Amino acid sequence: QVQLVESGGGLVQTGGSLRLSCAASGRTFSSYAMGWFPQAPGKEREFVAAISWSGGSAYAYYAASVKGRFTISRDNAKNTVYLQMSSLKPEDTAVYYCAASVVVGRTILSAGEYDYWGQGTQVTVSS
Asked: Averaged over 98-127, what is the pLDDT?
């Protein structure tokens, strides 16, 4: 069983920045594929960023809507994945969920392929 705890959400003005953190339990964190999925009211969770770890390197992938504004990273020594968000827009407002998959060596973009989810952290961008 993997437990995920997100933090770092809050209220920010348009153009501002936030860094989300997701702390994971588990002894094999470095093998997990990790992702971030925001969910706005009345909408489904959507993919924004994912990262995997293979051969000593991290592999990241982004949705077109956030590429150049968001950066996903991981610190395997701390069992933590981060989402650095900049140039935030009101449409980025959502509850941001962290997800983990025990699949090794793949960067996973589909929410349905993740095995574990955190409780979410609210991000609100004011105009």
From this structure: 94
